[in-house]
């Protein structure tokens, strides 16, 4: 079943995506992103103060859990292709809710590790299944725009969840933390109910002799997933590297740390849909990714400048400008990456392909903190410029990689001539 272009365009100027499957998907995203926001803010103190774990145990447990989640993303995406994306998404939303609920009662490291692995694996698989649902329910020409609506919804939900988590941190009681985790579990139950409302999509059947996980044999797509993972190294910049940079290398007041995240959250919530409007095919997608590379290089250069003596107010303005540029880069990257990941994936294998492409955030979260803190805090302003140059170079490499991938498969007929034109130019 596919949502027609005319029906989707009728909601072009709406804050929410059109009624029907796109809106149900968005509301499901909103529900579980509220839970995610609360979890992110409170999880560290919850696990150390209520569960009774050491910070080293929490760090080890979550690292192992997300590593397992990274490994099972493709198999769970393949399961969505073979058994039905809607059913798999509903089950994984329920297992996420169960794992969050179990956190409230586990009081030992082994049980915590099991719950964390179920949580991370369910989250990774749920992302792949939802992407497969989107690919099956929305016309290809409108997938990126609807995905932009979902991303805006995610950021709005994270902001609400973070606020709820902040209230729990303010009271700092067992009851407050347990209430937040209960709400987190409830949010995934609500998401499961909303996902169950969307129509079923066709399941695929593996052809005899075809690899079980075909995406692992698709070298051009693997290169594009790697390039996307490198671009996603921007993620730890605002959440980890920039805060450390602000307090150790600049004259800016400490409140600027929070303002950077506020700029990012509000920016994506309000402008992601608009940023995605220019992406219509693979050619415009590669252009959007290049634009992202330029914006990220500019952002890194601005952050580098903030190290110079300029006074607290000026430093704050400079840093907030850097955050705005990085947010622009994030939105342009996301818009291009969605179109590329959908457009180059076989229609009957969207689950496993989206599961593979979706490993980028996990890679960025695992490798980014150590790598970026070493380069930026160790090298100073030159480190920022080096990181920005990597973003620009990677974004420029995306175009040739997309053309390579397009030559190895049948792509949208509107996209392939565009790529030829770009190559000729």
TrEMBL record:
<dbReference type="InterPro" id="IPR011701">
    <property type="entry name" value="MFS"/>
</dbReference>
<feature type="transmembrane region" description="Helical">
    <location>
        <begin position="252"/>
        <end position="271"/>
    </location>
</feature>
<feature type="transmembrane region" description="Helical">
    <location>
        <begin position="58"/>
        <end position="80"/>
    </location>
</feature>
<feature type="transmembrane region" description="Helical">
    <location>
        <begin position="291"/>
        <end position="308"/>
    </location>
</feature>
<dbReference type="GO" id="GO:0005886">
    <property type="term" value="C:plasma membrane"/>
</dbReference>
<feature type="transmembrane region" description="Helical">
    <location>
        <begin position="87"/>
        <end position="105"/>
    </location>
</feature>
<feature type="transmembrane region" description="Helical">
    <location>
        <begin position="111"/>
        <end position="129"/>
    </location>
</feature>
<protein>
    <submittedName>
        <fullName>MFS transporter</fullName>
    </submittedName>
</protein>
<feature type="transmembrane region" description="Helical">
    <location>
        <begin position="177"/>
        <end position="196"/>
    </location>
</feature>
<dbReference type="Pfam" id="PF07690">
    <property type="entry name" value="MFS_1"/>
</dbReference>
<feature type="transmembrane region" description="Helical">
    <location>
        <begin position="382"/>
        <end position="402"/>
    </location>
</feature>
<feature type="transmembrane region" description="Helical">
    <location>
        <begin position="33"/>
        <end position="52"/>
    </location>
</feature>
<dbReference type="InterPro" id="IPR036259">
    <property type="entry name" value="MFS_trans_sf"/>
</dbReference>
<keyword id="KW-0472">Membrane</keyword>
<keyword id="KW-0813">Transport</keyword>
<keyword id="KW-1003">Cell membrane</keyword>
<feature type="transmembrane region" description="Helical">
    <location>
        <begin position="149"/>
        <end position="171"/>
    </location>
</feature>
<feature type="transmembrane region" description="Helical">
    <location>
        <begin position="221"/>
        <end position="246"/>
    </location>
</feature>
<keyword id="KW-1133">Transmembrane helix</keyword>
<dbReference type="InterPro" id="IPR050171">
    <property type="entry name" value="MFS_Transporters"/>
</dbReference>
<keyword id="KW-0812">Transmembrane</keyword>
<dbReference type="GO" id="GO:0022857">
    <property type="term" value="F:transmembrane transporter activity"/>
</dbReference>
């Amino acid at each position: 079943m596919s949502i027609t272009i005319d029906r989707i365009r009728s909601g072009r100027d709406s804050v929410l995506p059109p009624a029907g499957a796109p809106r149900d998907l968005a509301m499901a995203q909103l529900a579980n992103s509220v839970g995610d926001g609360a979890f992110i803010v409170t999880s560290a103190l919850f696990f150390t103060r209520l569960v009774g774990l050491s910070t080293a145990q929490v760090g080890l447990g979550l690292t192992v859990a997300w590593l397992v989640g990274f490994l099972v993303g493709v198999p769970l995406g393949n399961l969505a292709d073979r058994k039905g994306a809607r059913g798999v998404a509903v089950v994984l939303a329920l297992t996420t809710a169960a794992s969050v609920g179990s956190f409230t009662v586990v009081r030992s490291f082994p049980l915590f590790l099991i719950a964390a692995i179920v949580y991370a694996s369910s989250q990774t698989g749920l992302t792949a299944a939802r992407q497969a649902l989107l690919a099956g329910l929305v016309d290809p020409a409108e997938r990126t725009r609807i995905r932009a609506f979902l991303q805006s919804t995610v950021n709005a939900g994270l902001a609400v969840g973070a606020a709820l988590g902040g209230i729990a941190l303010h009271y700092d009681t067992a009851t407050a933390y347990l209430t937040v985790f209960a709400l987190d579990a409830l949010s995934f139950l609500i998401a499961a109910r909303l996902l169950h409302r969307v129509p079923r999509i066709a399941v695929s059947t593996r052809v005899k002799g075809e690899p079980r996980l075909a995406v692992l044999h698709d070298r051009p797509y693997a290169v594009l997933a790697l390039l996307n993972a490198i671009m996603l190294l921007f993620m730890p910049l605002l959440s980890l590297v920039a805060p450390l940079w602000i307090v150790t290398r600049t004259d800016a007041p400490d409140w600027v740390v929070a303002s950077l995240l506020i700029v990012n959250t509000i920016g994506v919530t309000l402008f992601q849909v608009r940023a995605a409007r220019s992406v219509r095919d693979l050619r415009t997608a590669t252009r959007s990714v290049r634009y992202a590379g330029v914006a990220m290089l500019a952002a890194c250069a601005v952050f580098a400048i903030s190290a110079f003596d300029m006074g607290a107010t000026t430093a704050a303005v400079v840093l907030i400008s850097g955050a705005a540029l990085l947010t622009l880069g994030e939105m342009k990257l996301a818009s291009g990456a969605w179109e590329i990941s959908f457009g180059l994936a076989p229609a009957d294998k969207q689950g496993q392909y989206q599961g593979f492409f979706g490993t980028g955030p996990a890679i960025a979260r695992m490798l980014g903190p150590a790598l970026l803190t070493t380069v930026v805090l160790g090298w100073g302003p030159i480190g920022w410029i080096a990181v920005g140059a990597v973003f620009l170079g990677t974004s420029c490499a995306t175009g040739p990689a997309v053309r390579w991938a397009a030559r190895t498969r049948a792509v949208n007929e509107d996209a392939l001539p565009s790529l030829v034109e770009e190559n000729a130019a």
